[in-house]
Automatic annotation (TrEMBL), chain A:
Coiled coil: none
Membrane topology, record value: Multi-pass membrane protein
Domain ABC transmembrane type-1: 90-297
Name of the featured protein: Spermidine/putrescine transport system permease protein PotB
GO biological process: transmembrane transport
Gene assigned in the entry: potB_3
Pfam families: BPD_transp_1
CC annotations in GO: plasma membrane
Transmembrane segments annotated in the record for this chain: 27-48, 94-116, 122-140, 231-249, 276-297
From TrEMBL, chain B:
InterPro entries (alphabetical): Bact_Polyamine_Transport (IPR051789), MetI-like (IPR000515), MetI-like_sf (IPR035906)
GO CC, any one term: plasma membrane
Cellular localization per UniProt: Cell inner membrane; Cell membrane
Cell inner membrane keyword on record: yes
Name of the protein described by the UniProt record: Spermidine/putrescine transport system permease protein PotC
Presence of the UniProt keyword Transmembrane in the record: yes
Organism: Roseovarius albus
Sequence intervals crossing the membrane: 12-37, 74-96, 108-133, 139-158, 187-208, 241-262
Gene3D superfamilies named among the record's database cross-references: MetI-like (1.10.3720.10)
ABC transmembrane type-1 domain segment(s): 70-259
Main location: membrane
Summary of the function given for this chain in its UniProt record: Required for the activity of the bacterial periplasmic transport system of putrescine and spermidine.
TrEMBL record, chain C:
Record keyword Nucleus present: no
Record protein name field: Putrescine-binding periplasmic protein
Role this protein plays: Required for the activity of the bacterial periplasmic transport system of putrescine.
Family: Belongs to the bacterial solute-binding protein PotD/PotF family.
Length: 309, 269, 345
C-alpha cells in the first residue's frame, strides 16, 4: 500500500486498454462531481463577499484572505500588520499533529516491528489485537479516553490509591490530552504500514551485518530503517494528515479552548462565526499545506524506494 | 525460521512497548465496559452490578432513535461500500490492465483525492456544493458523499491484489477463445475476490464510522449511528452509551475471533 | 457480486420507503438538547398520529448556522431564544401564523403575549423562560458567589476550575454586565477594555462547553461554571452543594419561543404542535422536566410544587438587574465577532 499509494502502482498489461474509458468513467464522474467540483466551488467561495450571519454575496472580494493574513485591529481601520492569530492556530495544529505523529511513531514502530518478527502463526492475532478497538466508534473511543483521564476518573483514583501521586494528574483540557486523543484515533494507520514493510524485509541483510560485527542497534539504524522507510513515511502521513484537520479531539479532550484548524473551519459554518468565505479560505490554505506536505513526502518516498531497490 | 535469526530480530523493550501500546488501546474501553454494568445513574458512584443499561439501549427512551440510526448507518454503509467497490473494481481494471495511457496519473490523482483532502475540507466543500445547487439534504446526500469518499479505500486493496495476479491466466483463457468479458468475469474477478472483499470491508467500516462529513451533509431528522452517539456523548458519557460501546466491542471481538480461526483452518489445509 | 447488488438494491428500496413514510403525518423539530421529555413527544404522537423527529443543537448561533447552510425548508419548528427570534425574523426565516390558526393562543400569559422580539406573536408561541448565570460548588468554595468576578476575575482557588458556555451571545452579554457597559457598545474604549478583560480572564478557564455545562459541575471537573438556571437545578439534584448565583452586577435572562419556520414541510402539523404546547398541562410537563418557567398562564396547577420555590427561580433582593441579550447591527457585531475570535484563538 505504501509504495502503491505514492506512485499509483504500475500497469501490468494492456488487456482491457480499449475499454479503459468506460471502466474509469464511473470513478471520474463520481469523484469529479462530488469531491473535485465541491473543492473548486469552495475555492470560488473563498473569493466572494461574506453575507452577515452566514452565506455569501456573489461579489468578488479578497477580504477572506486579507482577514487571514492581515491584522487591522479590533475595529478594522488600523494600518495592516501581519495577523498572527490564524498563523498561530495553524502552527498549533501542525505542532499538535506532529506531536501525535511522533508519539504514534515512538510507540507504533516497536509495536509493528515486534509483531512482524513474531512467528508467522501468531502475527495475525497480534494485528487483530491492534485493530479490534477500532471497530468501536471513534467518538466513543475519544469520550472513553476522557472518562479515564478525568481529574476524578479511574486513572487518577488508581494512581492515588497506590500512592504514586498525592494530587490528581491534570490531563483533560490540556494540549497533551489532545495529542493523546489524536494518537489514540489514528495509531493503527502508523502500525499497519510499518508492519507490512518490516514483514517484507529480508532479515538475511541484518544477519550479514551481524556477521560483520555490527551491533543490533547499528543494524537496526543503518540496514533495517532505510529499507522500511517507505512504510514509516506512509504511516506518518496517514497519522499526520487526518490529525491536522481533526476537530473532535480538540473539542472533546481539549475543552474547545484553543482552536485548531478543524475547529476554526467548523466554527465558520456550524458555530458562532458564520463567515463562509473565511471558512472556505482557511480550508483552501489547509488543503494547500497538506498537498505540499504530501508532495514532499512522496518525493522522499520515491527516493527511499530507489535507495532500497 | 531458525532460532539464530530470531535472536537478531528481537530487541529488548520492544515487547514491553507493544504491551504498553495494547494497554493504552484497551484501558479506556475496558474501564467503560466495567462501568456499563454499574447500577447507578451517576457515572462517578458505583452502586453494584446490573444489566439495566443494556435493557435501556433496547427499550429505553432513546432506543427508537438508536434503532433508526443503526438502520440508517447499515443501509448507507452497505449501499455506499457496494457501489464504491464496483466503481473501484472497474477503475482498478483500467488502471492495472489498461496499459500506459495519458490520463493514467491524473486518474490516479482523482481516485485518491478523497484520501488527500482533509475530511473537514471535504465536508465543508460538499456542504457548499449541495447548498449552491439546491440539493435537499437527507439520506441521499449522505449516501452520495459516502460513495465518493469510500472509492479510494476500496480501490487500494483491489488494485494491489490485481497487480499481484499475472495475466497468463486471462491470456490462456483467451487463447481458448474466451471473450475479454468472459476472461474478466470468469478468471480475473474470482482471482481478485480477496482484494475485493477487503476493499469492501474497508469501505464499509469507513462509511459506518464516518462522523465529520455525515454531520455536515445530513438532513433534518436523519441520524446515523455516529451522529446519534455524538448527540448523546456531547452532554457527557452516559451509561447507555457505555453499554453500546461494550456491545460494539464484544461483537468485533467475536467477529475477529471467528475470522481468525477460519483463516487458520484455511492455512492448515 | 450479484448478491451484493441484490442487497444494495433492497436497501435502496428501504431508503426510498423511509422517505415516503416521512411525507405524511410527520413533524420535524429542531430543538435544544435535553429540553423536552420524550414522554411528551410520545403523547403528542398518540393524540395526533403525527410522528415526531427531533434534531438537537447546543446554541442559538449553531442553530442559525445550520438553517442558513441549507437546512431551512427541512425543519418545521425551532426553539430560538428571544434575540435569535429577532435575528431570524430579520433574515426572513420565519413564517407568519395567521390570525385564528392557533386555537390556544388565548392561553398565552399576557406578560408574554406581545414581546418586543415578536410583537403580537406573529411567528412564535412562548416556550420556557429563565436566566443564565453560573453555579458554584459551595463545598469547595466558601466565598461570596453572587458576583461575576467568579467568572471574569476569579479568586486564586477557582482559577483553572471554571467552565464557560461556548456561546458568543450569552458569554459576551454576561461580560458586558460584569463591566457595566452596554451590550452593543460603539465606544472604542469600552470595546477595547472588554477585549482585554476577556483576554485576562481566559487563562483562568478550563473549558468552553455548553452541552456538558451540567456534567462538568456534577462530576467535579470544575468548581464554577456558567449555566442556565433550570440546568443548574438539575445539577443540584445530583450534587446538592451547587449554588446558582444571581450576581449583583446583573444576569442574563431569556425567553425561548417555538417558531414556525419558513417553508416548513409540515406546516399544519407544526401549528398542531404549537397548539399542543400551549395546553397548560403539556407546557407544565416541559417545565417539570427542564426546571424552567413557562409562558402559559394557567399551567401553575400542573407544576411540581418545588419548582416555583427552587432557589434558581428566586433571585435574592440584592441581585442585579436581569438583561436580555441584545441584537447589534452588522458593523457593531463585526467588532464583537472579532473579540470572540480573539478569545478563542
Amino acid at each position: 500500500m505504501a509504495a502503491g499509494a505514492a506512485s499509483g502502482g504500475s500497469a501490468t498489461t494492456d488487456t482491457y486498454a480499449e475499454a479503459k474509458t468506460w471502466l474509469l468513467m464511473p470513478a471520474w464522474v463520481t469523484i469529479g462531481i462530488f469531491v473535485l467540483a465541491p473543492v473548486l466551488m469552495m475555492l470560488v467561495y473563498s473569493f466572494l463577499t461574506k453575507e452577515f450571519r452566514g452565506g455569501v454575496i456573489w461579489e468578488f472580494s479578497l477580504s477572506a484572505y486579507d482577514q487571514f493574513f492581515f491584522d487591522r485591529g479590533l475595529f478594522g481601520d488600523d494600518p495592516p500588520k501581519i495577523e498572527w492569530t490564524y498563523i498561530a492556530i495553524f502552527w498549533r495544529s501542525i505542532w499538535q499533529a506532529g506531536a501525535a505523529t511522533l508519539l504514534s511513531l515512538v510507540i507504533g514502530f516497536p509495536t509493528a516491528y515486534f509483531i512482524a518478527t513474531q512467528p508467522e502463526k501468531t502475527r495475525a492475532m497480534w494485528v487483530f489485537l491492534i485493530t479490534i478497538p477500532y471497530w468501536v466508534n471513534l467518538l466513543i473511543r475519544t469520550v472513553s479516553m476522557k472518562f479515564l483521564l478525568r481529574d476524578q476518573g479511574p486513572l487518577n483514583d488508581f494512581l492515588l490509591s497506590i500512592g504514586i501521586i498525592d494530587s490528581p494528574l491534570h490531563i483533560v483540557n490540556t494540549n497533551f490530552a489532545v495529542q493523546l486523543g489524536l494518537f489514540y484515533s489514528y495509531l493503527p494507520f502508523m502500525v499497519l504500514p510499518i508492519y507490512a514493510a518490516v514483514e517484507r524485509y529480508n532479515f538475511s541483510l541484518s544477519e550479514a551485518a551481524a556477521d560483520l560485527y555490527a551491533t543490533k542497534w547499528v543494524t537496526l539504524r543503518r540496514i533495517l530503517l532505510p529499507a522500511v522507510k517507505p512504510g514509516v513515511i506512509a504511516g506518518c502521513i496517514l497519522v499526520f494528515v487526518p490529525s491536522m484537520g481533526s476537530f473532535l479531539a480538540p473539542d472533546l479532550l481539549g475543552g474547545a479552548k484553543n482552536f485548531m484548524i478543524g475547529s476554526l473551519i467548523e466554527e465558520q459554518f456550524k458555530g458562532n462565526a458564520g463567515n463562509w468565505p473565511f471558512g472556505a479560505a482557511a480550508s483552501m490554505i489547509l488543503l494547500t499545506m497538506v498537498l505540499i506536505i504530501l508532495m514532499i513526502f512522496a518525493r522522499q518516498q520515491a527516493k527511499a524506494e530507489k535507495g532500497a531497490s | 525460521m531458525s532460532k539464530g535469526k530470531y535472536d537478531i530480530k528481537s530487541f529488548p523493550g520492544f515487547r514491553a512497548i507493544t504491551l504498553l501500546c495494547l494497554f493504552i488501546l484497551y484501558a479506556p474501553l475496558l474501564v467503560v465496559t466495567v462501568y456499563s454494568f454499574n447500577d447507578s445513574q451517576s457515572l462517578t458512584v458505583w452502586e453494584g452490578l446490573s444489566w439495566r443499561w443494556y435493557a435501556d439501549v433496547f427499550t429505553g427512551p432513546e432506543s427508537g432513535k438508536f434503532k433508526e440510526a443503526a438502520r440508517n448507518s447499515f443501509v448507507i454503509a452497505i449501499v455506499a461500500a457496494t457501489t464504491a467497490t464496483i466503481i473501484a473494481t472497474l477503475a482498478a481494471t483500467a488502471m492495472v490492465r489498461g496499459g500506459k495511457f495519458k490520463l493514467r496519473s491524473i486518474s490516479f490523482g482523482l481516485i485518491s483525492l478523497p484520501l488527500m483532502v482533509p475530511e473537514i475540507v471535504t465536508a465543508v466543500a460538499v456542504l457548499i456544493f449541495f447548498n449552491s445547487i439546491g440539493f435537499e439534504r437527507g439520506l441521499m446526500t449522505i449516501l452520495i458523499s459516502h460513495i465518493a469518499f469510500c472509492i479510494p479505500f476500496a480501490y487500494l486493496p483491489i488494485s494491489a491484489r490485481m497487480q499481484g495476479i499475472e495475466d497468463t491466466y486471462e491470456q490462456a483463457a483467451m487463447d481458448l477463445y474466451a471473450t475479454k468479458r468472459q476472461a474478466f468475469t470468469k478468471i480475473l474477478l474470482p482471482l481478485m475476490m480477496p482484494g475485493i472483499i477487503s476493499g469492501f470491508l474497508l469501505a464499509f467500516i469507513v462509511s459506518l464510522d464516518d462522523f465529520i462529513i455525515t454531520n455536515f451533509v445530513k438532513g433534518a431528522g436523519v441520524e446515523t449511528l455516529p451522529t446519534a452517539i455524538f448527540g448523546s456523548v456531547k452532554q457527557g458519557l452516559k451509561p447507555n452509551i457505555m453499554a453500546i460501546s461494550t456491545m460494539l466491542l464484544s461483537v468485533s471481538v467475536v467477529m475477529v475471533t471467528i475470522s481468525y480461526f477460519v483463516s487458520k483452518s484455511d492455512n492448515t489445509k | 457480486m450479484k448478491n451484493l447488488l441484490k442487497t444494495s438494491v433492497a436497501s435502496l428500496a428501504l431508503v426510498a420507503g423511509a422517505n415516503a413514510a416521512a411525507a405524511e403525518g410527520n413533524l420535524v423539530l429542531y430543538h435544544w438538547f435535553e429540553y423536552i421529555p420524550q414522554e411528551l413527544l410520545d403523547k403528542f404522537t398518540a393524540e395526533t398520529g403525527i410522528e415526531v423527529t427531533m434534531d438537537t443543537y447546543d446554541g442559538n448561533e449553531a442553530m442559525l448556522a445550520t438553517l442558513k447552510a441549507g437546512a431551512i425548508g427541512t425543519y418545521d419548528v425551532a426553539v430560538p431564544s428571544d434575540y435569535m427570534v429577532t435575528i431570524m425574523a430579520g433574515e426572513g426565516m420565519l413564517d407568519t401564523i395567521e390570525d385564528g390558526e392557533l386555537k390556544n393562543k388565548g392561553n398565552i400569559d399576557p406578560e408574554w403575549a406581545d414581546p418586543s422580539f415578536d410583537p403580537g406573536r406573529k411567528h412564535s408561541v412562548p416556550y420556557q423562560w429563565g436566566s443564565t448565570a453560573f453555579a458554584v460548588d459551595t463545598a469547595k468554595y466558601s466565598g461570596d458567589v453572587n458576583t461575576t468576578d467568579i467568572i471574569f476575575n476569579p479568586p486564586e482557588e477557582l482559577s483553572g476550575k471554571i467552565n464557560v458556555l461556548d456561546g458568543q451571545g450569552e458569554l459576551i452579554a454576561l461580560a458586558s454586565l460584569h463591566m457595566g457597559i452596554p451590550q452593543c457598545s460603539t465606544d472604542r474604549d469600552q470595546l477595547k477594555a472588554l477585549n482585554e478583560m476577556l483576554q485576562n480572564a481566559k487563562p483562568h478557564w478550563a473549558s468552553f462547553n455548553s452541552d456538558t455545562a451540567k456534567e462538568v459541575l456534577v462530576s467535579g471537573d470544575v468548581t464554577a461554571g456558567m449555566i442556565y438556571d433550570g440546568f443548574s437545578a438539575k445539577a443540584r439534584a445530583e450534587l446538592s452543594t451547587l449554588q446558582y448565583a444571581f450576581p449583583t452586577q446583573g444576569y442574563v435572562v431569556w425567553m425561548d419561543s417555538v417558531v414556525l419556520l419558513k417553508d416548513a414541510p409540515n406546516r399544519e402539523n407544526a401549528i398542531k404542535f404549537m397548539d399542543f404546547l400551549l395546553e397548560p398541562e403539556n407546557i407544565a410537563a416541559v417545565s417539570n422536566f427542564a426546571r424552567y418557567n413557562n409562558g402559559v398562564s394557567s399551567s401553575a396547577e400542573f407544576l411540581d410544587a418545588d419548582l416555583i420555590a427552587q432557589p434558581e427561580n428566586n433571585p435574592p433582593a440584592e441581585a442585579g438587574a436581569p438583561a436580555f441579550v441584545e441584537v447589534c447591527d452588522e458593523a457593531t457585531q463585526a467588532v464583537y465577532d472579532q473579540i470572540w475570535t480573539n478569545l478563542k484563538k
